[in-house]
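Chapter review: from sequence to fold.
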Amino acid sequence: MHSVRIFRHYMRVPLILLAGIEAIIFVVAFQLSVHLRWWFIDIESTSEPTGLFIYSIVISLIFVLTMGATGLYEASLREGLTGSLIRITLSLLLGSLVLAALSFFFPLLGLWRSILFFTVIFSFILVVTLRLIFFYFNPSIFKRRILVFGDSQLANQVMIASQKRLDIVGFIPISEQRVNNQIKVIEHNKPLIQIAIEVQADEIVLAIEDRRGKLPIEELLECRMSGIQVLEQQSFFERELGVLKLELLTPSWLIHSDGFEHGLMTMLIKRFFDVLISLIFITLLWPIMLLTAAIIFIESGFRHSVLYRQLRVGENGEPFEVIKFRSMRIDAEADGRARWAVTNDPRITRVGRFIRKTRIDELPQIFNVLKGEMSFVGPRPERPEFVADLTRKYEHYATRHRLKPGLTGWAQISYPYGSTEEDALRKLEYDLYYIKNHSIFLDLLILVETVEVVLFGKGAV
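The token string follows.
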């Protein structure tokens, strides 16, 4: 399995080697920074070489620990390269704060701010370069090796969900059904632990619809005790696709799984950033909003309002009025019946088509964020008519209202624009994942990926 046990935690050898290489990078980055600093002020270094080397080891250790703390030495970085870049940035900033605190409490260390700055810059460039090389020439280092145990139909779903992220090393069937030819079928004619070792599996995914009498509990327990992760299918989809599959969702799974932790400090930090970003956006984007308002007013023949207010369902089911730039005709719902927006919707005006594509129509919602009715990141706010219908049909739909709705969200960047009830349910799976795993890091990742959505018009109607 190319794994070793360190302090009772199994780690893959390639990732340990990666940590070792990056530790050397941090040492080199510090040494370069020290010599660059003395070269700038045009004098010779008075520091002892031995002392500098010990200091560089300490800095390297701190940065490796913060890299590990942000999950950069795990084999299941589902966010891919974008998530890795964010984690690298955060880990270096965290390490810098730790080093700054050490310098404050131990002045004899004498760490100059300029040296720390250059160390971070050099480290970021070198670590990102190294990670890019691994991502493009040896991506398997960041892939877990998966052994699937169960029904072929569910095994096919697992393979489709993970074909780009993981290595499916084999499938152990429990029935005679045919399985996708791309998966290697393995007979269960020997102990499961032996099979897992032979195929070097890191994890076993249980793809079984009816488990009664079909699970080899003792063998699975032996695998788990040997350091091989055993995942239920719902947990697998949660990790790999960022969804909670509705057909697999059970009360017992929700009760025993982690997540749904919305601490006071997290919510205060989230609110602080909502207000801060709102004020920054208003300061920077007011010319665009003013120009958009003028164009909409001209297109309407100077007769109609440029803003559109519509009732939506917010946090804890409380209704509020969302504010948007008008992008549809004034008689879009003249009969009073709520309708989903669809692709090439004839109700959208010429200006409306552009501002919807570029998401400019949603800029006035910044004021909803300032008022505290919305957040920058959260589930999309839906109309009361749709919410009432979907809540009546699906028991978990109301769960999406446990957090403030957002201008952008996990569902918005992960799934195309929805115009049907089925689309709403698929987006609900992403919303449930976000609510369960909500964190400041996830919000940051969503905001970064939203830039791609806006630039390339993904998901817009």
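Two observations follow directly from the output. The two ends are 47 Å apart (CA to CA). The first helix runs from residue 13 to 40.
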